What does this fold into?
Amino acid sequence: MRALLIAFSTYSALPMPQREWRGEDMGRVLCFLPLVGLLPALVLPLWFHLALKWQLSSMLTACVGTVLPILLTGGIHLDGFCDTMDALSSHLPPERKRAILHDPRAGAFAVISCGCWLLLYAGLLSEIGTVRQALALAGGFVLSRACCALQVAHLKRYDDQGMLAAFSVPMDKRAVTVAAALAIAVSAAFLVWADLPTALLMLFAALALSFYFRHMVYAKFGGMSGDLAGWFIQSLELLFAVAIVIGGRI
It folds into this structure.
């Protein structure tokens, strides 16, 4: 139970009871990362249902749909995305890129990349016009975090500092792997139920980005970090939105 509370207190904006962080609990926190995805997964379909019922404009629907997951998660993954884009845009050696990741200041490329991500995501969400597409979007929030947990469990870190290291150093790798695989299986089955062509596109996107991410982590940074995990989640959710728009037209 402590591991679950730590996961939600860390990766969501929900107020949670404060508990002492113990080593055995920290090692299982990432088992519950996919469950954090249930927050936007439950709220987004409801919002799209209400927007369709109230006949709201696609722009308003998409903008609110873009903001809601950020509010529910506290923007922690978007922060990692921005830091990573700053580092990648520097084209510096891995050790200099890692220094940029640890810099709390936002550079120009972080701001530009964040703006581009928000515009693209909102634009893609404006094309969602059915509840089934909204359900596919919901399933993606769980799937992206499950895939991320799997990556963290099996990619080496470049150091033992930061929040991710606090969870991964004492990690029960087997428990995290089993939990992530189960979450991937359940979310994949849900996506197939929602819409088969879209599900296949989303699963392909997850597989392709996972292979690319492994290469990027080692080639560009020399190892894994929490910011890179945030980049992975945000990039995958953007690809999922692309897959949903394409799948709706097949």
